[in-house]
Specification:
Radius of gyration: 30 Å
Helix content: 55-70%
Strand content: 5-15%
Shape: elongated
Distance between the termini: 61 Å
Number of strands: 7
Mean pLDDT: 82
């Protein structure tokens, strides 16, 4: 019932929400100005009711609404500073009361904004869970017929003569089926629970393996791969296959984003408890409004992308008790940072 009320309230136009707050604030301000020269005691009582529109604005419009309403309320107190009878003590109390309005509006608005963000996050998580279940069911049903289609298409392609008129169209079928199989495999990987076999993994050797696997793509795009780990022997507890998948996806994305002649750099930042692997590119960067969405399933900024690569990458990193971070400046490139816990013995050895 509460969710239904929230949904209905969210579609109410903003001006309808503003009207009651504005009318209440205007009425209290008018009463304050009319009573001030005649009944200062009643005017002081009216001032206490200014908290009503303040709470309404904070609850309806969050932090911004609370601060704006507090500023409008404080306009009613400006005349007290110019009054000749106002002493330092009275002026100090007026300033405190004005600060109280701002503090109340800011605190209430902040809590309301936080609650709304949490509600949106839970709603998105619920939608993603439902989407994942549906995607897993669809992928499971489509997997077998796609494998059959792809297998028969490849067999026919091998049997056709090189100059056959339908050979090009058949190649398109084979490529598209392969693309759909990749998409289904990624969907299943995202929905399946992860089973990790954690062992000490030496990062320098793992990065060299990743560079070997992505070297062909880098050469095709005229992009240079640079390793700045310097063979320090840094180790993390990880599933080698899953962590390799994480780095391959990040390096491939960096290569695709970089211009011809660019450089993709992998380096490490180390502290006593964590190792942060950074993959840096020289691409166009990611727009600020897309930086939070980039890890959502099926959201992609690449033409022909599936939108599941970074979602699976993030899932793998979280399964390792790590964090995947993004730092991007439009026009200057992006840095994807994989923060993982260190092996305790490795940390102690480096300190010694």
């Amino acid at each position: 019932m509460i969710d239904e009320l929230r949904r209905r309230w969210s579609i109410v136009p903003t001006w309808i929400k503003v009207v009651p707050v504005a009318m209440l604030l205007a009425g209290l301000s008018l009463a304050h100005w009319l009573l001030l020269p005649l009944r200062p005691d009643l005017s002081a009582l009216v001032q206490r009711f200014f908290f009503l529109p303040l709470f309404m604005a904070s609850l309806l419009f969050g932090l911004r609404g609370g601060l704006i309403c507090a500023a409008l309320i404080c306009l009613n107190y400006l005349d007290l500073f110019s009054a000749p009878a106002t002493g330092r003590a009275a002026a100090f109390l007026v300033v405190l009361e004005m600060l109280l309005y701002f503090l109340t509006g800011a605190l209430t608005g902040f809590l309301v904004d936080r609650e709304r963000r949490e509600a949106r996050r839970l709603k998105e998580a619920e939608n993603l869970a439902l989407l994942g279940q549906a995607a897993a069911a669809v992928a499971h049903e489509l997997k077998t017929p796609l494998i059959a289609i792809g297998g028969f298409a490849q067999r026919i392609q091998r049997d056709l003569k090189p100059d056959h008129p339908y050979r090009h169209e058949l190649k398109i079928i084979v490529d598209q089926v392969s693309h759909m199989e990749t998409l289904l495999r990624q969907m299943l990987d995202y929905t399946r629970p992860l089973e990790l076999r954690l062992v000490p993994v030496e990062l320098s050797g793992l990065v060299k393996e990743v560079f070997t696997l992505t070297e062909a793509m880098a050469k095709q795009g005229a992009v240079r791969l640079a390793d700045e780990l310097d063979g320090r022997g840094l180790k993390v507890p990880a599933d080698a296959g899953r962590l390799r998948q994480v780095l391959i996806n990040l390096v491939q994305n960096a290569v695709q984003a970089s211009p011809r002649g660019g450089v993709v750099v992998v380096r490490a930042q180390v502290d006593k408890e964590h190792i942060a692997l950074e993959v840096m590119d020289q691409g166009p960067g990611i727009a600020p409004e897309d930086q939070e969405k980039i890890f959502f399933p099926f959201f992609t900024t690449k033409r022909g992308g599936t939108g599941l690569g970074l979602a699976i990458t993030r899932k793998n990193v979280l399964a390792h008790h790590g964090v995947l971070e993004l730092q991007s400046t439009p026009g200057k490139g992006s840095i994807f940072r994989v923060v993982l816990p260190r092996i305790n013995g490795d940390a102690a050895q480096e300190e010694n």
